[in-house]
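Sanity check

After download, print the first record. It should look like this:
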Amino acid sequence: GVGLAAYVTYHHMLPGADPLGPDNLLGFVTGILTGAGTLFSGRWMVTGKSPLTGGWGDANCGGNFGPAIKACGYDAIFFKGIASEPVYLFADGETVEIRSAAHLWGVDASETEKRLKAEAGSKRQPRVASIGMAGEKLSLVSGICNKGGRLAGRSGLGAVMASKRLKALVLAGSNPIRTANS
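Expected structure tokens:
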């Protein structure tokens, strides 16, 4: 997914963008084989301009969030701009909604995951990637958490997520992930 993220970032982010500003592009990307049953292909990556270095930033993580992106019908999800209030993205393969996360601001990442899973009202168990209070305070060493504590923790991208007032992504898709011969 890093190649896709680099391409989209190069073509859609303005030069000189502030890492914590509205023009930074925050991406959640999968690999080409994610969800295909191939060994070691379940990881996902978050990308953007790093507030630590001012250059390319990425962090990858295991868990079940990468296949959840694919099960919603996407290879990548990108965010640009800044929300007027804390929000989270909900997607289930049919619906994509930006929902209020005001009630979750100030809540740690593990508790946020638990609450959002309970709120989802989905037929399928949702997968959640969220930030905690370090990200909300724009700590440059904050990461993005999923599956009860797995962390995409390089490049300060938790702070980038918080700068967009994006608390979490909740993915509950059930689209089959097909390969050419399946």
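If your output differs, re-run the checksum step. Summary of this record's structure: Residues 2-12 form the longest helix (11 residues).
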